[in-house]
Amino acid sequence: MKEPYEAYLDDYNCLDVYMSKNFFGGKSRIFHMKDTKDRIIPLTIQSQSDLYNGYTHYSLSLNGNLQMGQEYTVYDEHCKTCVAKYSHIVKTERFAKEYMYEKEDLGVTYTPEKTTFKVWAPTALAVYVGYVLNGKKIVESMVRQDKGVFSLTVNKDLNGVHYSYLVRVNGEYKGVTDPYTCFSGPNGQYSVIVDPKSLKLPKKIKLKPMDSECDAIIYEASIRDMTSQTGIGVSHPKKFVGFTEENEITKAHSTGFSYLKSLGVTHVQLMPVFDFGSVDEVYPNIFYNWGYDPVQYRCLEGAYSLDPKNAKLRIEEFANLVHDCHKAGIRVNLDLVFNHVYVKENFALENMVPDYYFLMNREGEFSNGSFCGNDIDTQPYMARKYFLETCKKIIELFDVDGFRFDLMGILDYNLMNEISEECKKLKPDFMIYGEGWNMPSFVAEEIRASQLNQAKMPHVGHFSDRFREVVRGSNDELSRKGFASGQADLFYQVKCVMAASCMDHVFDSPAKVINYVECHDNHTLWDKNRVCCHGESRDLREKRQIMANAMVLLAQGVPFIHCGQEFGRTKQGLGNTYNRSDNYNRVDYQRRDHHIEIVERTKELIQLRKEHPCFRLSTVEDIEKGVQFDSIYDQVLVYSCQKGDDHCMAFFNPTNIPYDYHLDQEARVLFDDGNSNALETQDIHIAAFSVVVCQFGLTA
């Protein structure tokens, strides 16, 4: 409580009043409410209780009909007043039924002759549109219509006009940008009306469809990090246009997009590109941030644009980025942060319909499973409709190929299934996956979009923290090793994760399993191994890096590589560099050159996976039929996989002892970072700390 006297409408017939004991002792014998037309609604005290925080709580019933959107003033026996705030009432079934708006026309509809503004704000007393035309500031009142929609049509050409809304709700005026638009001014100060026909968008490129998500090789990258190092030949570093810029210098030194193309990955997963609040878009170099601080869900981040004041430009720049990637045969997945917002009190949807879009309980407490102070509530109809429409608009506008959902476990699995269904209607091989951690939010555990409920999400993937912990070692305890860093006794667990955790039924499809040992969060693999493999030489840590990468790329499921994992990226020993400047986060191409052996080996492994369908089995049945394991003294993993005529065997030796393995037929060696075998052989030598891959059936 902040005020000495507060009231909340929690239901159509229930009002909760909280009075400070410093305010008339917190006592009142009677209450009533009055609306803006001076009509009185009597209130009856149902219960009264003393709270530990120095307030008296009154539960009151309403003796009259409530009119949604009216502003009600509560009077106590001392004639003291406060505005009754619409609170949990917006979560009730009656509210949901009466204010379900099904049309997809919220926001701005533009023609040269007129512009129509529409917003959904059922609890608002009034909504105004403010805009600037020919240097003159104009404010016009919107008209309340059915289903809580406010509308206004201006019969003028408003192309290029800046605008915002002013909403009167819960006794206060709040300035609000348009949450439904894709066009924003710098730092979300205002929204912009744009003629969609004036956008110069590239023609979409149709790529050959994937047969399965298991065909994907995902590479996570940041728009800023890829080109923030100086001297790499990029004329527009840290920008959308710089991300895909190529010239003689980038090609000669394999930097930026030239380097990304050389890796052979199928998908680039971009860290947040939509408007976030932790960087000043006008002065983007003052602050650094990864961007997990959403402000506007449909507007691109202006810090990545050459001109953040040009609302059209950032749209065109990003559309061209996707186009350039598609021309290079690389699909684009976007990291979406639908679980929380940067500042709840400043969020446009919150100020239009307070409390509706956030998880809260009947006591008015807000869920904090994201540990960011607020959790989005995706269960109310208009909330899930907003996020569904947002996903569809992003695909239709930019032609992207997949979404990765941050802290997906805070969302509900019904929404994820709906998103998957709608996205796959637009692109059948569209990828949907996310962090399925079981977050401690107010969402009931049985409906969370977490790994626990993976069977209820047939086309939604999950990052496999199990794979990470087994292969890399403990994410929390840096000193605890994984299989690739020398913990050979994890033999049973490593067999499970190499089979996409399908043989032991943790997952019911390999297409759902995102295998990784490094992502933007936590220490890089190289920094982790510097601790858990302390005392080992740099050459040996390179071999461990190659082995971990090989396990990611050859395991059943979907491989995921964090940018720089292929050259031993370091963040100088820090586990969380989300705001720690370019010096910690940039892609260091000199370091890349220093560890070029890891790069070249990783490229070979990427190509090997693409060429051999036996590493990309798409069903549990295929895995059960085609994957087998053996071992050499429970120290070396022997991993055999087959699909049709494609039959390969891989050996992973994380120990300092070399081993030999006799095959029942001659095989061709496809990969051997120990350089210990002839091209064709029946006796495989697995050097210490090495990976060997061979194929059967191709010898003369």
UniProtKB/TrEMBL annotation:
Question: Is-annotated flag, keyword Hydrolase?
Answer: yes
Pfam families on file: Alpha-amylase (PF00128), CBM_48 (PF02922), PulA_N1 (PF17999)
Which residue range or ranges hold the Glycosyl hydrolase family 13 catalytic domain?
247-609
Which EC numbers characterise this protein's activity in its record? 3.2.1.41
What residue intervals traverse the membrane? none
Q: Which GO terms describe its molecular function?
A: pullulanase activity
What keywords were assigned to this record?
A: Glycosidase, Hydrolase
User: Which GO BP annotation is one of this protein's?
Assistant: carbohydrate metabolic process
SMART domains according to UniProt: Aamy (SM00642)
PANTHER family recorded: GLYCOGEN DEBRANCHING ENZYME
Family as reported in the entry's similarity comment = Belongs to the glycosyl hydrolase 13 family.
Which named protein is this? Type I pullulanase
**In which organism is this protein found?**
Holdemanella porci
Q: What is the lineage of its organism?
A: Bacteria, Bacillati, Bacillota, Erysipelotrichia, Erysipelotrichales
